[in-house]
């Protein structure tokens, strides 16, 4: 997709082996009720100040200014409610999220999954990697809001055991092999990027979860645990929950 007026991937390209979207996959949007929880309220302290399309506007501004046309840079976001529901699915149906583990968002945009993950589970480190500089700068702005307005509410144990790291870089140039949970909102990632990311995911430890949208990581090292539909800023996406296994 080029830098069109709409960032909605209405007709994402399909690549044999990378996409197995099934219309019967159950949807988690209807179960959303997480905004009124403590993590939900803290999350909205960070993001409530921005318009819902702020990330898209910032991304589009940089792509236009710099002349970037790669479809891989197309912007879309998770919604807190459905992302929280996705975590609940992993927790209840797939043996649970690792305690004190590392969460990485590959292509983190303005950081929504990173802060959501940090608030929803007791990760020790939450990392966002974003190639576009303007989006990365918003993550740093959000980090300030977190430090000033959210962290003081979290309690000593959680706040002192939780680290964040935002990197303005190509995810293929960064080592994130220590991740226990990798999230990629990969609907618009190209086939070649997904192949490169699949190689990177081979370096993850056994048992690491890899959660992607629309396209999966490929190879015998990845076990597909579940396919589910999740509502996002641009509509429903198929989510793949996979796990790194020894093969
Ligand atoms: C669909 S957006 C997802 C944003 C965020 N993860 C979310 O779900 O709210 C995908 C992001 O990946 C970024 N991206 C694309 N290719 C990348 C790469 N090679 N390294 C790092 N970020 C990348 C894009 O700039 C975009 O912000």
What topology emerges from the helices and strands here?
Layout: H1 38-47, H2 54-66, H3 80-93, E1 102-106, H4 112-120, E2 125-130, H5 133-150, H6 156-160, E3 163-168, E4 181-184, H7 191-201, E5 209-213, E6 222-232, E7 235-244
Bound molecules: S-adenosylmethionine (SAM).
Residues 59, 72-73, 75-78, 105, 107-109, 112-113, 129-132, 135, 170-172, 185 line the site of S-adenosylmethionine (SAM).
What can you tell me about this protein's structure?
With 247 residues, the protein is an alpha/beta fold. It has a single domain, classed as Rossmann fold (3-Layer(aba) Sandwich). The chain is 32% helix and 19% strand. It contains seven helices and seven strands. Strands 3-2-1-4-5-7-6 form a seven-stranded mixed beta sheet, covered by helices on one side. Helix 4 links the parallel strand 1 and strand 2. Helix 1 runs antiparallel to helix 4 and helix 3 packs across helix 4. The longest helix is centred in the middle third of the chain and has 18 residues. The chain is globular and about 45 Å long. The relative contact order is 0.19. The N terminus is likely disordered. The structure holds S-adenosylmethionine (SAM). The site of S-adenosylmethionine (SAM) has 22 residues, from helix 4 and strand 2.
Compact description:
The chain is of the alpha/beta class and 247 residues long. It has a single domain (29-244), classed as Vaccinia Virus protein VP39 (Rossmann fold), CATH 3.40.50.
For the structure shown, list the relevant keywords.
single chain; 247 residues; alpha/beta; Rossmann fold; seven-stranded mixed β-sheet; 32% helix; 19% strand; binds S-adenosylmethionine
